[in-house]
UniProtKB/TrEMBL annotation:
Annotated signal sequence range: none
Source species taxonomy: Eukaryota, Viridiplantae, Streptophyta, Embryophyta, Tracheophyta
UspA domain: residues covered: 11-160
Protein name: UspA domain-containing protein
């Protein structure tokens, strides 16, 4: 990549967003601290939302099967609406900054999706929030940010929300 006006090399920054307060805080922090206020900037900010797969467990009789199909369709619709809402909310936060913004929603385990998209899009930096789960919850659910720090093919910045007193 060549230099652009002002001598800055264009960067592609991926910000992982979800419906949490922590991810929106990480986006705001990124915009305030990493995105130049240069109208000629050629930096790209990719707002990436990963939709977790919906797990369906088989029932023991036919009624559970019928219910599962209806419930599954309803959950998929709701997840699509949530994903659209998350991206729109994130895009609104970016309006006042002179940066190219791309919103993306991908399906799959967030740990894998985020790392795959970092590689596929050639990201220079991954920014994500920390939910601040305790050790027990983190052990059960797994830490998306920890996985990305260990596995992503670019530097990862984990933004922690300040504690409220």
């Amino acid at each position: 990549m060549g230099d652009v006006a002002g001598g800055e090399k264009p960067r592609k920054i991926i910000v992982a967003v979800d419906e949490s307060e922590e991810s929106m805080y990480a986006l705001k922090w990124c915009l305030k601290n990493l995105v130049p206020k240069n109208p000629n900037s050629q930096h790209t900010l990719v707002l990436l939302h990963a939709r977790r797969p919906i797990l369906v467990y088989p029932g023991f009789d036919e009624s559970a099967y019928v219910f599962s199909n209806d419930a599954l369709a309803s959950l998929q619709r709701r997840d699509g609406e949530v994903a659209q809402m998350v991206i729109q909310k994130a895009e609104k936060l970016c309006v006042e900054y002179d940066v190219k913004v791309e919103g993306r929603t991908e399906n799959g385990d967030p740990r894998d999706v985020i790392c795959e998209m970092v590689k596929a899009l050639g990201a220079d930096l991954l920014v994500m929030g920390s939910h601040g789960y305790g050790p027990i919850t983190r052990t059960i659910l797994g830490s998306v940010s920890n996985h990305c720090v260990q596995s992503a093919s670019c530097p990862v910045l984990v933004v922690k929300m300040p504690k409220t007193t």
